[in-house]
Amino acid sequence: MTKTQIRNFCIIAHIDHGKSTLADRFLEITETIKPRDFRDQVLDDMDLERERGITIKSHPVQMQYRNKDGQDYTLYLIDTPGHVDFSYEVSRSLSACEGAILLVDAAQGVQAQTVANFYLALDAGLEIIPVLNKGDLPNADPDRCLRQLKDLAGFKEEEVLRISAKSGDGVAELLEYVVGRVPPPSGRSDQALQALIFDSHYNTFRGVIIYIRLFAGKLSRGDKVLLMNSERGYEVQEAGVFRPEMEAVEGLSAGEVGYIIANIKEPADVLIGDTLTTAAHPCSEPLSGFKELRPMVFSGLYPINSADYEDMKTALIKLRLNDPSFVYQPENSQALGFGFRCGFLGLLHMDIVNERLQREYGINLVMTTPSVVYQVSTTDGREMILDNPVLLPERNRITEVREPFIRAFIITPNDHIGAIMQIVQDRRGECIATESLGVKSVILTFELPLN
Q: Residue 62 is part of which domain span?
């Protein structure tokens, strides 16, 4: 299949607007999954995802599709999370795509993560396809949603598709629209290999499994490859795609999304955002990679049984391979013993990491009260950045303490503006801007302390 018959796209939306359900319909229409193997939210394969009803990790899948003109296409879909704590997952997924379906719940309308993910896709230069979902709900208000989409990005009514991911109405037409609107990938297979590592996970028996998007060149079993950041070389033992389970193939070429296994035993050798190339004919420069995120919330994690410290350290290394947005460093406490100071993107992110450590690695933990980072100026002219209140100097040595502030965008119906203003003011926040979003909603911009 030629590069012109490949389409890479993802689904972005606010929480619970139907991303995973729409992915299910795509998999059914393209017959990627046999009916006997089908279950709802099939791409959400973590127990935590299924229990909580949310997507935590992005999930790539390859689909074979024949359009109404009889032309065959290979579609690479990435389902993404909707919660703000996992926006880093979304940004990494966007880097592997040329197009994005912007899904909006016709009952709830444009929400906070709709706006945030729209701008992420816009910054990534993706072709954005606006879609109204759940139009068959009794409380759906598609006209209001159309006005909001027009206010958000100037989308015209005829550009917005209407579907029901649950019943499947309009989904086949959406796939046709994706094939027509999303551009094929650029880059040539006869160029030097240039592949972006956008995710990875650790397998006890096979080592690190790297998820890649090839922007140029080709790759097959037996090739000697180089990780440009660590400058370490490996031999590819297996290359494959996700259908949606991992399936080995002869090779991957420019424009495709897949995985490689190369007997990488040390998780620390793999950096998300690194560029993969061939050792014999490396590419001239690495891809731009990802912006490093700063953690917002810090907490101490300590094993209940001190003998589990080394096991916990190994578990954190493997978990960070799969989730590079959280950071950690060793610390010790007189009361709790040896443990780690960990940084997270938010409270949900912290809760998920805690549960994954307990479930996937069998580590029983004690977690300290979460806190934020403070900047402290001392009488001797030093500037200190502290994420642990235990490290604060004595009061007579402190000249100034600065706390982190955030700029928050809150989308609300007009009826609730007063109540939200009061809640934010009670938390020392200040409203700095308002912007209408349709007739009945408004975007409020606040500055308030992160703690």
A: 3-181
CA dihedral 109, 113, 114, 115 (to 10 degrees): 110
d(CA 380, CA 288) in angstroms, rounded, equals 41
Task: Provide the pLDDT confidence category of residue 345 given band limits of 50, 70 and 90.
Answer: confident
Please state whether the peptide bond connecting residue 404 to the residue before it is cis, i.e. omega within 30 degrees of 0: no
> Is the separation of the CB atoms in 255 and 8 below 8 Å?
yes
- Tens digit of pLDDT for each residue in 299-316? 889 999 888 899 999 989
Exposure on the CB side of residue 204, measured as CA atoms within 13 A: 4
Residue with tokens 């500037």: 383
**Torsion sign across C-alpha atoms 308, 57, 110, 140:** negative
Residue 417 included in any domain: yes
Give yes or no for residue 191 having a pLDDT over 70. Answer: yes
Q: Looking at the domain assignment, is residue 158 inside a domain?
A: yes
CA angle 266, 270, 275 (to 5 degrees): 150
**pLDDT 10s digits, 21-38:** 888 888 888 888 777 666
CATH value at residue 326: 3.30.70.870
Record the pTM: 0.82
The rounded distance, in Å, linking the Cα atoms of 330 and 342 is 9
Q: Is residue 186 part of a domain?
A: no
Q: State the CB neighbour count (10 A cutoff) for residue 338.
A: 15
* Paired tokens of 83: 């919660």
Here the CATH number for the domain that contains residue 229 is 2.40.30.10
Strands 337-344 and 327-333 come out as antiparallel
Average pLDDT in the 114-128 region?
88
Residues 12 and 152 in one domain: yes
Closest CA to 302 of 330, 278, 269, 268: 330
Residue 105 lies in a domain: yes
* Residue 390 CB neighbours (<10 A): 10
Q: Give the separation between CA 240 and CA 262, rounded to whole angstroms.
A: 12
Determine contact, residues 235/224, Cβ cutoff 8 Å.
yes
3-state class of 150 per DSSP? helix
The distance between the two most distant Cα atoms of the chain, rounded to a whole number of Å, is 78
pLDDT in tens, 59-107: 888 999 988 888 899 999 887 776 766 677 777 788 888 999 999 999 8
